[in-house]
Amino acid sequence: MKPIRVALIPAYCPDEILCDLLHELSLREFFIIVVNDGSSQEFTPVFEEASRSAVILTHHDHLGKGAALRTGLAYLQEHFPFHYTVVTLDPDGNDRLSDAERLCRTVEAQPDALVLGCRDLKQKIPFATRFQNRMSSLLFRLTSGKYIKDTRTGLRAFSDRLTPEMLTIPGEQDGYELKVLKHFARTHNPILEVQTHTLFCPVTE
């Protein structure tokens, strides 16, 4: 039986773009989990709308992206007794869902691998973003011995085989994702990169 495809989205103070994203994911037959990571009350209408398409898990306080991902994975481990493929996305709609599906297909062919959506850093993106990615990749290579072109991508996919291992990796904030990469580099689990396209890259300079 083909694994269920699960979209896991940590969300902190999202706008209406989240609801558009969930609608498109539903059309592509994803099971969707959104973790409300302590957003303020003014964002309640967004999550109420989102609940029409997704399971909403809520942190009463803002705990960080790592904590939100771990909450979603813990929910899957407890409630899903069947095989699934997880793809993690940001709530801003910057990732092509066709790329998310490509990552899922890669995992379904290699279920022991962690698959990363590797953004095209030659696109017209802010210098600060390119610099941060290059420095992060260099430092990762120096500390782990493994080169990964885009260590900062939030578009990632993996099978249910890796969920228990993911939950043993500590971290609450954004650094959790880098800790996951370091963990898999140490354990020699396959880390695969799939070229993807970013629809929009916010200016962070």
Structural account:
The protein contains 7 helices and 7 strands, in the order E-H-E-H-E-H-E-H-E-H-E-H-H-E. It has 205 residues and is an alpha/beta fold. It has one domain: Alpha-Beta Complex (Spore Coat Polysaccharide Biosynthesis Protein SpsA, Chain A), CATH 3.90.550. A 7-stranded mixed sheet has the order 3-2-1-4-6-5-7, sandwiched between helices. The protein starts with a strand and ends in a 9-residue tail after the last strand. The C terminus is likely disordered.
Key features?
single chain, 205 residues, alpha/beta, Spore Coat Polysaccharide Biosynthesis Protein SpsA, Chain A, seven-stranded mixed β-sheet, 7 strands, 40% helix, disordered C terminus
Task: Explain briefly what this protein structure is.
Helix content is 40%, strand content 20%. The protein has 205 residues and is α/β, with parallel strands linked by helices. The protein has one domain: Spore Coat Polysaccharide Biosynthesis Protein SpsA, Chain A (Alpha-Beta Complex).
Describe the protein's topology.
Layout: E1 4-11, H1 17-27, E2 31-37, H2 44-50, E3 55-59, H3 65-79, E4 84-88, H4 97-109, E5 114-119, H5 127-144, E6 156-159, H6 163-168, H7 175-187, E7 191-196
Parallel strand pairs: 1-2, 1-4, 2-3, 5-7
Antiparallel strand pairs: 4-6, 5-6
